[in-house]
Amino acid sequence: MAVYTQLSAGTLGDLVAQYDVGQLVSAKGIAEGVSNSNWLIETTGAGAAGDTRFILTMYERRIDRGDLPFFLDLLDFLSARGLPVPRTIHDRTGASFRLLDGKAVALIEFLPGVSVDSPTAEQAHDLGAVLARMHLAAQGFSGTRRNDLGPATSSRVLAECGADALAAIDPALPRAIRLAREVAERWPADLPQSVIHSDLFPDNVLMLGSAVAGLIDFYFACTDAMAYDLAVTHAAWCFGEGGKDFRHDIGHALIVGYESVRPLLGPERAALPLLAQGAALRFVSSRAFDWIDTPAGAMVTRKDPMDFMARLEFYREAGDRAFA
Amino acid sequence: MAVYTQLSAGTLGDLVAQYDVGQLVSAKGIAEGVSNSNWLIETTGAGAAGDTRFILTMYERRIDRGDLPFFLDLLDFLSARGLPVPRTIHDRTGASFRLLDGKAVALIEFLPGVSVDSPTAEQAHDLGAVLARMHLAAQGFSGTRRNDLGPATSSRVLAECGADALAAIDPALPRAIRLAREVAERWPADLPQSVIHSDLFPDNVLMLGSAVAGLIDFYFACTDAMAYDLAVTHAAWCFGEGGKDFRHDIGHALIVGYESVRPLLGPERAALPLLAQGAALRFVSSRAFDWIDTPAGAMVTRKDPMDFMARLEFYREAGDRAFA
């Protein structure tokens, strides 16, 4: 959550002029996104769609420019198929992103809706259904991208952090090294795949009332098991503060919603407890790495890896019960 | 520039329901304001004005709740007189602010426009004219508020920081203690007053093309000399990076614009060099204090007091030349 870069009004105006969207009226840096800077842009409107509001995203780090066509084409693909996903606004030359001061920027459709911290069962049900619709639609997308944050990566990252550095964060954290290795060894290789979001936290979902109005921030999207995406979403949505207080009703609604569109296969359902442990470890490992890697004085909120250790332990204990 | 507080979608929705503005559609934390949190709010619209966008401000610190009626009534007063100032949206009971989790919040009109880093002479001219119009209009405002950041405060704050702590920031900074005392001693007491903005930095002005579309962030507004406000604005707008590279053309346009609406009196014009030194010292002192007061690890950008030391030295050297 940050605006890393300052853009002058002149720079913004010149940029907007490269698109058929009218004149710049307003630009506010918004506190969203962890690997990019974002502005809410208002223009006088133009073009066929006549939109007057857009999100301008500047890709700051962690995002390989070579991946941008995959991410931005995916938005367009899903949006064109009726998914609540913001399309990319292409510039007058047809390009989906441009370079500004050496950094890639894209103009993205603005979607209404607010992120909810604690969903209702109705919202969780709709989220599951929309996720399944997205998985089915994305199977027709021609692009592919390897998941470079899978269980093998989690295991390697934690091992490289080392038990001492992990123990300095929390005495219960070094245990993640062994658990990650075990999860990676048992990881199923043959579950049905699609393009998955893989980071569908509440921040990345816009709700209007009880319905999903937007899925955003596809910058971890990759080709991987659909059931893994459901497990990530489960881990991200069904717990209270600190990864405690599992909300069975929310998890249940999420899965029922998902299966109302795309019933899980037997092996997918059987794999959910392990997939959820892998999902928890994905965030344990990246947060532990960032914690060690981030100077205490940096202007970034360090996220506590223990929030996902708590989820990991829960999924280990609960097994199938968590998904019943 | 920060969003200090997280508000859940439910809390935001409940809050918006207290106003006749329709249903909540979107809420984005925006990276504006140094002593408050701000959200750009979108609603379905309702009421006579039919506005659909608003700024929600939560007052975090530095702002005395007892001052809020002054600030918010001032916005309404100036807006009603045709100044480009956002009015306050009153709730269904007529209140201009409410309490949320123990903190005061206000819903403010959204104004278009973008903040420019480096104004054109045309923009500076219009800014001067709007500032003068605001000064004249605000003379009819019944509220008053003492300027608690005047030259005596600057002098006291710098003395209390102490030469050693200032020298630790920059060897050239302790000299500000003596200069501030001298400026405070020579400060004119009888210049014509109004309610002044007193913090009219580029961040607090929204431009559309070459015209001022909004003056915002009146949370330092107070009753003081109008020429001092012009001097603050001059110090805030007419310099390049680090307080260097005085732009005479911008300063000239600002003053010519101001005088196109409200000609300065002889004593005001004669006082400008001193007033500008006082303006520079106001920011030297608060920035030095914040620098010393802010832990290095805090998630706040510390502003370098030396940027305004450079301006102070410039105004001392240039004298009347800076305003010719």
From TrEMBL, chains A, B:
Superkingdom, natural source: Bacteria
TM segment ranges: none
Pfam families assigned: APH
Family: Belongs to the pseudomonas-type ThrB family.
Protein name, entry field: Homoserine kinase
Statement: the UniProt record of this protein carries the keyword ATP-binding: yes
Organism: Aurantiacibacter spongiae
Gene that specifies this protein: thrB
Domain Aminoglycoside phosphotransferase: start-end pairs: 27-264
Keyword tRNA processing listed: no
EC numbers for this chain: 2.7.1.39
Taxon lineage: Bacteria, Pseudomonadati, Pseudomonadota, Alphaproteobacteria, Sphingomonadales
SUPFAM superfamilies associated with the record: Protein kinase-like (PK-like) (SSF56112)
Catalytic activity: L-homoserine + ATP = O-phospho-L-homoserine + ADP + H(+)
InterPro entries listed in its UniProt record: Aminoglycoside_PTrfase, Homoserine_kinase_II, Kinase-like_dom_sf, Pseudomonas-type_ThrB
GO biological process: threonine biosynthetic process
GO MF annotations, alphabetized: ATP binding; homoserine kinase activity
Pathway linked to the protein: Amino-acid biosynthesis; L-threonine biosynthesis; L-threonine from L-aspartate: step 4/5
Keywords: Amino-acid biosynthesis, ATP-binding, Kinase, Nucleotide-binding, Threonine biosynthesis, Transferase
PANTHER family listed in its UniProt record: AMINOGLYCOSIDE PHOSPHOTRANSFERASE DOMAIN-CONTAINING PROTEIN (PTHR21064:SF6), AMINOGLYCOSIDE PHOSPHOTRANSFERASE DOMAIN-CONTAINING PROTEIN-RELATED (PTHR21064)
